[in-house]
Amino acid sequence: MVGVSSFTERKRAEAQQRFLAEVSKVLSSTLDYQETLANIAQLVVPQLADWFSVDLVNADGDFELAEIKHQDQELVKLVRAYREKLPLDPTEPHGAPYVVRTGQSELYPQVTDEMLTASVKTEERLALAQQIGIRSVMNVPLIARGQITGVMTFVFTKPNKQYDQRDLALAEEVGRRAGVALDNARLYREAQEARDQLTIIFQGVADGIIVYNNSGRIIYANEAAARMTGLVSVDSLLAMPVGSALTNHEVIDEHRQPFPHSRLTHQRILAGEKEAEAIIGYTHKANQQHERWSLVKSRPVYDERGDVLYIISILHDITERSKRQSPVSRALPMSCNAA
Predict the structure, then answer these.
(1) Mean pLDDT of the 141-152 span
(2) Is the pTM of this model over 0.90?
(3) Contact 71, 83 (CB under 8 A)
(4) In the 3-class helix/strand/coil scheme, how is the chain assigned residue by residue?
(5) CATH number at residue 111
(6) CA dihedral 11, 15, 21, 25 (to 10 degrees)
(7) Are residues 63 and 182 in the same domain?
(8) What would the pLDDT profile of 80-98 be if each residue is shown by its tens digit?
(9) What are phi and psi of 255, to 5 degrees?
(10) Is 273:264 a contact under the CB 8 Å cutoff?
(11) What is the residue range of 316's domain?
(12) For the chain, what is the radius of gyration of the CA atoms?
């Protein structure tokens, strides 16, 4: 019997590893927010649950039912309609509110009718729970960047199925991976929306414009900025990893010395300055005669909490003016002109 048990455990562990591999593959297949949610649900049901839902929580602690997966679509519609009418109470002692408050998962291997009656507040909600046929439940947190962003609920509806601690460990790992994927999808969506808005705002501006998020990543740039920094296109500028150097150009200061990354104007804003400006040159590594000079000014955009949300950098082309000045003397006149 020991040999049979050992074989069964090994097969189960192998199946869980295959499932996690599928999860990672699915989650890496898209940066679309809704598609990511749907892909998670499609994978979980029926492999790990008969009923699956995702509740997301915002900064105010309010819950949004973001995804449900179950074979009975009419029941799904009923639950969505109920939740729109009566959202989750953040103070509830069990379920998603408890998981968000404590960061602790919940495991109920066997859910009885008495447990359901005691845990719900309204007759309508009890009727829905009984209609779903809840028999075994796991609630696990979605975690991204150390923050709980939501809760995933796994439900077995068949009496012969029960979750155990190993299932909970698997569900928690799915929650960690899904949390990161959803956060990436959210950031991508926000960046796309911001980029569309910025395109409208800055269209027709002659100066170069670069907008960074609060991680130092470029989320918007116009053609003038790409041209001034020596890149062939805006896409090349947007694709640059945070902190990376230009491939074909060297960034120099007004004394033709390498420009320290920490002194770039957007980095100074991230370090706490209210505004920053600098004269920056971009010289081609293969052709030192081909260089451009810009007066760069950066200012922050704050969110409602007063934290830096974006940094907007304006690049004013001063190449022609710099040609008429020596490297050492160009700083003072141009800085004075910029004041």
Answers:
(1) 92
(2) no
(3) no
(4) CHHHHHHHHHHHHHHHHHHHHHHHHHHCCCCCHHHHHHHHHHHHHHHCCCEEEEEEECCCCCEEEEEEECCCHHHHHHHHHHHHHCCCCCCCCCHHHHHHHHCCCEEECCCCHHHHHHHCCCHHHHHHHHHHCCCEEEEEEEEECCEEEEEEEEEECCCCCCCCHHHHHHHHHHHHHHHHHHHHHHHHHHHHHHHHHHHHHHCCCCCEEEEEECCCCEEEECHHHHHHCCCCCHHHHHCCCCCCCCCCEEEECCCCCECCHHHCHHHHHHCCCCCEEEEEEEEECCCCCCEEEEEEEEEEEECCCCCEEEEEEEEEECHHHHHCCCCCCCHHHHHHHHC
(5) 3.30.450.40
(6) 150
(7) yes
(8) 888 888 888 899 989 999 9
(9) -100, 10
(10) no
(11) 204-338
(12) 27
Is 193 a member of any domain? no
Burial of 70 (0-12, 13-18, 19+ CB in 10 A): buried
CATH number at residue 278: 3.30.450.20
Q: Are residues 143 and 249 located together in one domain of the fold?
A: no
User: Do 239 and 94 fall into the same domain?
Assistant: no
pLDDT for 216-255, tens place per residue?
Answer: 988 888 888 888 887 778 888 888 877 766 656 788 888 8
How confident is residue 331, by pLDDT bands cut at 50, 70 and 90? very low
165 and 257 belong to one structural domain? no
Single residue among 159, 187, 215 that ends a domain in this structure: 187
pLDDT of residue 326 exceeding 60? no
Residue 329, pLDDT score: 43
Q: Is residue 229 part of a domain?
A: yes
pLDDT on residue 289: 53
How do residues 20-54 score in pLDDT, each as one tens digit?
A: 998 888 888 887 888 888 999 999 998 899 999 99
